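Follow-up to my post from last week.
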Amino acid sequence: MYKYDEYDHAMVAARVAEFSDQVKRRLAGEITEDQFKPLRLMNGLYLQLHAYMLRVAVPYGTLDSRQMRMLAHIARKYDRDYGHFTTRQNIQYNWIKLEDAPAILEDLASVEMHAIQTSGNCIRNISSDQWAGAAADEITDPRPWAELLRQWSSFHPEFSYLPRKFKIAVIAADEDRAAMRLHDIGIQIVEKDGQHGAAFYVGGGMGRTPMIAPLIKDFVPLDDLLSYAEACLRVYNRYGRRDNIYKARIKILIHELGADEYRRQVEEEFAHVKSLGIDPPKAEFDRIAAQFAMPPLDALAPDEIDRSDPDFAVWVDQNVAAHKVPGHAIVNISLKPVGGIPGDASSAQIDLMADLAETYSHDELRVTHAQNIVLPHVRKADLYAIWQKLDEAGLATPNLDLISDIIACPGLDYCSLANARSIPVAQKIAERFSDLGRQKELGELKLKISGCINACGHHHAGHIGILGVDRKGTENYQLLLGGSGAEDVSLGTITGPGFDEDGIVDAIERVTDKYLAERTDSERFVDTFRRVGMAPFKEAIYG
Amino acid sequence: MKLLTGNDLKTGFVTWWTGSDWSIHIEDAADVGEHGEAILAVEEAARRVNAPYIISGEMTADGPRPAHIKDRIRALGPTVRPDLTLKPADPAAGDWVI
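User reply:
Got it. Predicted complex:
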C-alpha cells in the first residue's frame, strides 16, 4: 500500500489547518454561507437533508486496517455509529456537526486520509478494480498508475476549477469491475507486442445524459500516461461548456465535437505537453510501484477448501473469487443483508473487517463500487474462520452479484438532490427475492437504483435499473432494462410508464419471471434481454 | 400555512421557525404567513441557520405537516432508520411521512 511521503503529509496538514480556520470563521459569523459553501465542498463537506455529510476519499478503494479502524472511530465518535460506503469507493457520514469537522480531518490525516477533492469541479477520487493486485485475470496491478494519477491530480492548479467534476478509473483486466467506460476517463492497462500501455476511453458517464466512453487512443506508452491524461484534460478545460451545468461534462464536449476531432485536438496538445516533462522519472514511478508489491504469499499453501459446512460452502461459491496465487482467494464481504441498507456498516462491523484484514489479508481491504468490501489476499485455509466471524457479525450474506446485491444511492432519505427514496425500494426487492435458491436460479443479475437523474446509484448500468422521480409531489419509479457497467457495457432502456413503490417490486418480479421463461441454458438476464429485446418484457410488465 | 425552515449552522440539523426562535421539532413550527420573507431576511443575516426557505404546509391534528415528502422526511428523519428519527420510540412515526 502507498505510504505518504513528507510532501503528502505536508499538503494534507496544511489543508486541515486552512479548513479549520475557515470553519472557525464561519461559526463566528465572519463569513456567509455563500462564501463558505465552496470552501467546505472542497473538503468533502456537504449539507444534506438532516445534517452535514462528510465524504472521505479512499484512493482506488484501498485501505489498511489502521485506516479502517479510524473510519469506525469517526462513525462512533462524531456520527451515529455507522458509515455508508459509496459507488465511488469512498465512505460518507450522514450526521456530522460543522464544529467537529476540523477534528475529524485531523483524525483522518493521522492515518494518511482526507476528504479533499471528494466534491467540487475537480478530479475526484481515482477509482479502480477492487481486486487489483490479486485478480487472476489482470495483466498487472493498476494501482501504481492510479496512485500516480492521484498525486498528479491532487491540488493540480490547472484542473481545480474544471467546467464540471471529473472522474477517472484505471483497470488492468479485460473483465471490467470498475465501470471504467462510464467514467470521464477510463484507462485500461493493456499489452501489445509484449509491452504494457494504456488504452484511453474518454467521455463516458451516467447522470442525466448517459454515454459510453469511446476509445480515443488504443495504446499510450506508460511513460506517456500522465502527459496524455494532461492533454485530455487540457482540451476539456479549454472547450468544455461552462455556460450550462447540464452540458458541462466532458462527454457532452466529445459528443458535440465528435470523437475524431477531440482525438485530433488531444494529439496536438499531447505533442506540446510531452515537451514539458511532466511524466515522472522511472525511479519515481518505481518508488510508487514498490509500495504495491504483492505481499509475501505462500504459493504452497493448501488449495483445498473443507466444504463440509453447507452454509459455508454456499458462501464460498458465491462470495469468494480466484486469486492469482495458488492456495489463496479473494473474499467479497456483502454489505447487502436482506432488509438492510446497501453500503451501510456499523462501527463494530467496520472494526471487525479491519481485524480480519489485519489477521488474514495482509492488512489490506478494498471498497468496491458496488458498495461491498473485499479482503484481497486470504489463504484458502483461513476462509472458514473468516466466514464464521463474518456470519456472527451479519456480514456473510452469500449474494454477490445476485439480485439482492443492489447498488442504491442514499436517495430521498438523506440526499438533498433526490426526488425519491431508493433504500426502501432496495429493501422491498431484497425481501421479495430473499430466498437464496430463487436468487441463484436467477443467476448474475445486477440491480441498481438511483433516487434522481444524477444516477449516483448507477441505474443506467443495471441489468435492471430503477430511477426514482417526483411526479406531482409523489415518488414514482421508472424501470430500465439491459444496462451493464462491465466489459459488455451498455445503457439501460426505459420500459414505459413508471410505478409506485410497491408496483415497481411487482414489475421486477414480472420481468424476472419472463426471463426464466425465455432464457436458454446458460444465459444471464442481460444476455436474454439482448437476444429477445424489450417487447416480451414490456408485454409481461404492462400486458 | 407557510413554514420557515433551514439547517442549523453548527449541527446541520433541520430546524423550524417557532415565531420567536428555532426548534428542531416541527410541532413547534409557526405559520409565518405573509411575514416569511421578512423573517427569512433577518435570520439569514443573523447567520445562525443555513439556507432558510419557506415551504407550504397544513395544520393537522398532529401539528404542522409540510406539503412535500422531502420536507416531511427532513422533519422526522430517514424513513429507513426509525431509531435515528426524532421519534425513535414510535415505530409508526414513518406513516406521517408517507
